[in-house]
Amino acid sequence: MIADLQLQEEPALEMERPSIEVDIACAGFGPAMGGFLTTLTRAWSENPGDPSFESRAVPGMPLQVFCYERSDNLSAGVSGVVTRARGIRASFPNLNPAEIPMTAEIHDERVLYLLDPIGASRRSVALRLGDRVLRAAGSLLGVRDDALELPWTPAFLHKRPGLVLSIGQFNEWVGARIMESGLVQIWPGTPVSAPIFSGKAVEGLRQADQGVKPTGEPDSGFMPGMDVRARLTVVGDGPVGAVSRAIDERVGMPEGHERREWALGMKFVIEVPEDSPLKPGTVWHTFGFPEPEIFGFLYVHPERLVSVGIFVPSWMGDPQRTGYRYLQHFIQHPALWPYLKDGTLRSWGAKSLEESGKRGEPFLSGDGYARIGESSGSTNMLTGSGVDEAWTTGVQLGEAVLELLRAGKPFTKENLAATYETQRLASWVERGEQQAANARNGFHGGLLRGLAGMALAGLSGGKLSLGAHIPPAHRQIRRGSDSGLKERGALLAIETGRPLHDAMLSARGWPEIAFDGRLLVTHQDALLMGGKVQAMPGFADHVVFLDKELCIVCVEKTCIAMCSGQALTQSADGVPAFEREKCVHCGACLWNCAQSGDGEHGNIEFRAGAGGLHSAEN
Ligand SMILES: Cc1cc2nc3c(=O)[nH]c(=O)nc-3n(C[C@H](O)[C@H](O)[C@H](O)COP(=O)(O)OP(=O)(O)OC[C@H]3O[C@@H](n4cnc5c(N)ncnc54)[C@H](O)[C@@H]3O)c2cc1C
Ligand code: SF4
Ligand code: SF4
Question: Are strands 65-68 and 19-27 parallel, antiparallel or unpaired?
C-alpha cells in the first residue's frame, strides 16, 4: 500500500534513470548564477591546492560543480539592461566596460511622460484632463514631440554611475571566464525538470526526459533525464523556473508571501544610422504610452545599437493586453520615432519579470539547497533593478559556500541560514527590498495613484506607502469587459486571418502598422530575426493546460493575446493550440491566464523546456 502511494505521488522515480554524483548542482545560468560561480571559481583559482575544494563525490578530484541551462546558449537571456552595477563592479573592481561587447557607461538619464498622439489608449478622465492641460501649456512646460521630460527625477530612479549592458553579451562574457577556470561545467540546452526531493530536503536535480511525445510519454529514442545528485543544489532559474516553483509547492512560502505581481518585458534591438545623434550611455525611461500602464525604455549601446522596450504588467486589467503590437506603436511615438525610423531591427526578445520582490520572497534556503536571483525575490521594483541584485545574491551564496567548505560543515538549512541568509539580510540588497516592498501598492488603483504611491515609498525610503490588497494575477484581469469590441475584433480577425489580439487593437482604433520589412515587420517575421526560435525535437510540451474545460468556457483567452511568440493560437475546440517551435519561453502565459482551478494560480502549468529564442544581443 505504501509503495502504491509513493508510486502515485512520483511515478517517474520508479523508472531506471542514469545518475551521477557531483558536489554542487546548479539550475539556470543568469546573472545570479554568474555571481555565484564567479565567486566560487575565483577563490579556487587563487588557491587550487586548498583542501576544502576537494570533491567528496569524486575523491581525489577538485569540487565537481555542474550548471544546467535550459536555453541553447548562454547568451540567450533577455533584459534591458541599465544597472548601477554596484555588485558587479565589486566582483570586477578593474572592470573595463570596453571588454564586454555592447557595454557603455551611463552619461545621460531622462524620464519622459508620453502623451497619446493617436487617441487610442485607454486613459482615465483624470489623465485625459491632465493631458489637455499639458498640451494647452505646451512649450511653456517643455512639452515637445508629445512628451514631457520631467524636470527632476528622484535619486532612487538614478542609475549613475552605472552601465548600459546587453544581458546576452554579459552572460557570455561571464560564462567564458567561469569555464576558463576549469572548475565548473556549464551545460546549455539542458533543461532541469525538477529538484530531487527527500521530504523537504533537496538532493539534486533531474534533467528533462528526451525522446518523448509532446505529452511526455516515451517515444522512439527515449532517454530518461539524468539524476544529478549533489551535496548542494543552487537554484537560479529566474522568474518562471520550474525548479523554483516545485520547491515553493513542496515547502510552501513564508507566511504572507505570495507571487502575484508580474510584467512582460519585450524589447527590440535596433541598429540606427551612422548620423544618429543618440550617444552610447543614453538612458530614457518612459510612461504613459502606448497605454498608461505600460512603462518603456530606450538605452543606447556602443556601435549604434539601441535597446528599446516596454513592460506590460499584470495590473493592466484589460484582457486584450499584448506585447508585440504595443511595442511597435511605442517605437513610433513622436518622441522616439525620429531617432529610430531609419534603423534596422537586429533582434528582439521577451521575458517575464517577477515583480513581487520582498513580498514574493520564498524560503531562501533549506536542507541541501539555496535560492538566488529573481526567483528568490531579489528584484527591486522601486528602482527597476534586477540584474545587479541577482548577481549580488549569487556572490553572497558563493561566499557562504566557501565559508562552509572551509569549515567542513554540511549544507544544512541551519548552516545556510547562518551564512548565506544572514549575509543577504544584512546587505544593500535587503535594504533595497525593504524599501521597495510596498512601492507598487497604488498601481492596482490606476497610474496616477500608483505614481503617487511609488513617490511616497521612494522619497520616504519605504517608511510610508499606500495600503493595497493585491489579488491573484488571474483576478487582476477584468472579465467580460467590452464584449462588443471583442466581437468587432473577432470579425476583423476572421476577415483578415490575423491574430486576435492584433485585430482587437485595430478594432479599438489603433492604426495599422505600416510594415517596411526592415524595422516594422510582422510578428511571424520577427521570430526569424536576430537568430531564431528553435525547439530541439524529442522534448515534451512545456506549456500544459491544466483543466481543459476551463479553457473551453474561457472568453478572455488572455494567454493567446499575450503570447510573445504566437505559439498559442485559437483552436476549434476552445483549448488553445500550443506550438513548441514558436515558443520564446517568456513565461507570460503562466500569469496571463484569466481562469483558475485553485483560486490562486492560473490554468497553465509552465514546465521546463528546451530551445527558445536565439539572439546574442538581448
Ligand atoms: C525586457 C527586460 C528589461 C529589463 N531591464 C532591466 C534593467 O534595465 N535593469 C535591471 O537591472 N534589470 C532589468 N530586467 C530584469 C533582469 O533581467 C532580471 O532581474 C535578471 O535577469 C534576473 O536574473 P536571474 O539570474 O535571477 O534570472 P534570469 O536572468 O532569468 O536567468 C535564469 C536562467 O535560468 C534558466 N532556466 C530557467 N528554468 C530552467 C530550467 N528548468 N532548467 C535550466 N535552466 C533554466 C533560464 O533560461 C535563464 O537563463 C529586465 C528584464 C526584462 C525582461
Ligand atoms: S489557459 Fe487560461 S486564458 Fe488561456 S484559454 Fe485556458 S483558461 Fe483561458
Ligand atoms: S507559449 Fe511560450 S512564447 Fe507564448 S506566452 Fe507562453 S512562454 Fe511565452
Answer: parallel
**Rounded to the nearest whole angstrom, what is the distance from the C-alpha of residue 545 to the centroid of ligand 2?**
8
Statement to judge: residues 188 and 263 lie in one domain = no
Whether residue 153 is found in the same domain as residue 263: yes
The answer to whether the CB of 612 falls within 8 A of the CB of 582 is no
Task: Please spell the DSSP secondary structure of 76-117, one letter per residue.
Answer: ------EE--HHHHHH-TT--GGGSTT-EE--EEEEEEEP-S
Same domain, 61 and 72: yes
Residues 178 and 285 in one domain: no
Residues 365 and 251 reside in one and the same domain: yes
CATH code where residue 429 lies: 3.50.50.60
Assess contact for 32 and 236: CB atoms under 8 A: yes
- Ligand 1 centre from 78 Cα, in Å? 7
Pairing of strands 568-569, 577-578: antiparallel
CB-ligand 3 contact for 41 (6 Å cutoff): no
Interval between CA 559 and ligand 2 midpoint (Å): 6
Q: pLDDT tens, 173-202?
A: 999 999 999 999 999 999 999 999 999 999
Bond before 410 cis per omega within 30 degrees:
no
* Amino acid 531: pLDDT: 62
Amino acid at 443: F
Kindly state whether residue 569 falls inside one of the protein's structural domains: yes
User: Which one of 319, 339, 357 terminates a domain?
Assistant: 357
Please name which of 183, 187, 171, 176 lies closest in space to residue 43, comparing C-alpha atoms: 183
Kindly state whether residue 93 falls inside one of the protein's structural domains: no
* pLDDT band at residue 481 using 50, 70 and 90 as cut-offs: low
Tens digit of pLDDT for each residue in 285-328?
A: 999 999 999 999 999 999 999 999 999 999 998 888 899 999 99
In-domain check, residue 56? yes
Nearest residue (CA) to ligand 1, atom 31: 30
pLDDT, mean of residues 102-127? 94
Total structural domains within the chain: 4
pTM as predicted: 0.95
Nearest ligand to the CA of 602 is 2
- Final residue belonging to a domain, choices 322, 357, 392: 357
Distance CA 565, CA 350 (A): 9
Cα angle 301, 303, 309 (rounded to 5 degrees) comes to: 35
Query: Are residue 156 and residue 186 in the same domain, yes or no?
Result: no
Residues 242 and 207 in one domain: yes
**Domain membership of residue 145 as a residue range:** 104-161+259-357
In a domain, 5, yes or no: no
Mean pLDDT of 92-109: 94
pLDDT given at position 482: 67
Task: Dig out the grid coordinates for 411 from the structure.
Answer: 549544507
Cα dihedral value 529, 518, 493, 595, nearest 10? 40
Contacts of 499 (CB under 8 A, 6+ apart): 493, 523, 560, 566, 569
Q: Are residues 406 and 465 in the same domain?
A: no
Q: Given a cut of 80, is residue 394 above it in pLDDT? A: yes
Ligand 1, atom nearest to 585 Cα: 47
Q: Determine the distance separating the centroid of ligand 1 and the alpha carbon of 34, expressed in angstroms.
A: 11
